[in-house]
Amino acid sequence: MALDTKHKDLEGLRIDRSAPIEDGAGSLWAKTYILAGIGLIVLLGIGALAYRLFVGSTAEVEVVRAAAEGGNNVAGNVILTATGYIVAHHKINVNSKVTGRVKWIGVEKGDKVKEGQVLVRLEDDEFRAQYLQAKGAADSARAYLQELQHGSRPEEVAQARHNLDEARAALSDDKVTLDRTRQLFSQGVVSRQALDDAIAKYDSDQQRANSLNQSFQLSKLGPRTEEIERAKGALEQAEGQEDYAKSLLDATVIRAPVSGTILDRTAEKGELITAQFASSAEGGPQGSVVSLADLNDIQADLDIAQDDFAKLTPHQKAIVSVDAFPDLHWNGVIAEVSPEANRQKATIEVKVQILNPDSHLRPDMNTTVRFMADENRNTPTQAQGAYVPSAGLRDDNGQKYVLIAFNDKAMRRDVKVISQRNAGALVSGLNGGEAIITTAPENLRDGDKIKIKGQS
Question: In terms of C-beta density within 10 A (0-12 exposed, 13-18 middle, 19 or more buried), how is residue 320 classed?
């Protein structure tokens, strides 16, 4: 093919950019799709921004129920309201008297136990060996004392008499031999040596007879009083060692001191329990094994402001409630008043005995206690209102108000303080039962979205 022909063919393949673009149907659809995509992206961005502004900024708050007071209460007029905690009257940390390693533990947190029930067993091989050693020493000392107290047996006395008679018979024979030897020596028949031997044998047998006679007399008299007393002292010492070793062995079995409920379990199998020192390091010796309390004997522990203390009397009746079950109530009465005040908090500790406890009440629960007026005491009718803790009261240029949690929003409610209460105030404008916001961000306002802490 000629070069000119090829050049013309290539020229035909070039795009003529000077030609006008035709505005066809395909171009219109392309523009529509592009604009729609851009709009969708913008809408998604606006939605994400709105989600971050309205959902992501939801404030987390804590609430407390407002407690209604005054009016005609079923238990009489409320003269004082206080908040505190449920506590066990007697909480016991069960420790070990000896140091040892846990061999077995038979309780879990929440288990109910009876007095004397076995809770923990420690390894006891060493303590058992010490006890058997002390027991053997005591048995030996006891047998020796009995031997002294009973004296010589008849058979022993008879044996001592027989030995004495035998020695006397030998001594008599020696006397005859000595006399004959002296006569023969005077006649010159035997030597001086033979006479000396006869004299020596006679003296020896005479000493032996005297010794056996003393033994015979002692066997009839028995041991001395001082020896018996010394044996008694040795026995008492050995029995004391035996009792001590037995107490250490018994201490390897840890029992419940009272009937109650296991509140906490601080030891596990294989851990070292010590009676002297405890370590906070991981794997170190523990100072206790479990803690327990009788949950049928519980109290409300309160700090009463000194300004309100005069309103109470010994054995004042009260109504107890807890935040966990605001619709339930328990009867109570003042059981203990601290003999001294708290200087820093300007309060006096008061404990209210709960008279009808049940399984709803647990130690360390938040509680509200309403003290009732004495029936024989002329107490003026108290204004009707609701108790609000100090953390729930807010101020807006002198106007007191509270924020109520309602339908996931904070709602402002203006209130008026009727009187001050322990750690709070009695206010009007509330009916009681409202969820008062106590802990929230400082910039929380009326209508803001909220989330109650601990609720999903």
Answer: buried
